[in-house]
Amino acid sequence: MCTLEQRGRVFVLTLTGDGEHRLGHALIASIRAALASVAAQAAQAGPGAALVTVAEGRFFSNGLDIGWAGASRARLGELVAALRPVAADLLALPMPTVAAVTGHASAGGFLLALCHDYRVMRADRGVLYMSEVDIGLPLPPYFVALFRAKVTAAHALRDVLLRGRKLRAPEAKEMGIVDVVCPGAPETAAEAIRLAEELAARKWDGAVYASIRVSMYPDACSKVGIVEESDEDKARSFASKL
C-alpha cells in the first residue's frame, strides 16, 4: 500500500513494503486517496507545495498486477482502466511532482514515474523497462500518448517501446527521461526531496501550474480524461489574475 507524510511544504507519498508494488485495485485506490488528500491540504495551505513519490524495497513499481489478472484480458483491461485516473490525478495535481525512482520501474510502473514532472533515479540498481513488446501485449492509447509526451527523442521512444530496452539511470538521463542520477536509494530519495523543497519554495499558484502542465501535454491529458479549458475560459482566467 502507500503512506503519505508532510515534511514542511513537501508531501511524500511512499509505496510501502519490500514487494514489487504491483498496481492492483487496492494500491491504485490507496494512491488516488493519497493524491486527493494532497490536493485538498494544498488548497487549504495556499501556494507553495510539491509532491515526491518514492518506494521502499528494490522496486519502484513492477507494473500492473498481472498475477491477479492472470490470463483474463477482461481483468487486465480493468487494471488498465483503473490506472488511467492515477495518471490524470498526477497530471492535474496543482503542484510540482518528483518521482524518486529507487528501484525497478517496469510497464505501468514506468508510466507512473513518467506522470511526474521530474525523475530522480539511482545508478547502482534498477531499470526503466516497457515489457509489452516482449510479452505480446498492445499498449493502451493513453500509455502511448504519455510516452510520446515525456520521451521526446524519437530514437529513445523507439528503443523504449519497440525494442523493450532496459534503461539504467545514466542511459535514461542521456535520453532526457531522467533528470538527476544518484548513487543509491537513500541519495535518490534525499535528492528528490531537496528538489521538491526548492520547487515548493517558489510558491507558485497551484491552479496556474496545473493549467500550464495540461497545456504542455494536450494529447496525453485528453487521453487520460482531463478536459483542457477552452481559449475563452483561459482568457477569462488570465484576466481575473491581472
TrEMBL record:
GO terms for molecular function: delta(3)-delta(2)-enoyl-CoA isomerase activity. Pfam families: ECH_1. One of its GO terms (cellular component) is peroxisome. GO terms for biological process: fatty acid beta-oxidation. The keyword Lipid metabolism applies. InterPro entries: ClpP/crotonase-like_dom_sf (IPR029045), Enoyl-CoA_hydra/iso (IPR001753). It is an enzyme of class 5 (isomerase). Pathway: Lipid metabolism; fatty acid beta-oxidation. It catalyses: a (3Z)-enoyl-CoA = a 4-saturated (2E)-enoyl-CoA; a (3E)-enoyl-CoA = a 4-saturated (2E)-enoyl-CoA. It comes from the Eukaryota. Its EC number is 5.3.3.8. Keywords: Lipid metabolism. Belongs to the enoyl-CoA hydratase/isomerase family. PANTHER family: ENOYL-COA HYDRATASE-RELATED, ENOYL-COA HYDRATASE_ISOMERASE FAMILY PROTEIN. This is Delta(3)-Delta(2)-enoyl-CoA isomerase. It comes from Lolium multiflorum (Italian ryegrass). The lineage of its organism: Eukaryota, Viridiplantae, Streptophyta, Embryophyta, Tracheophyta.
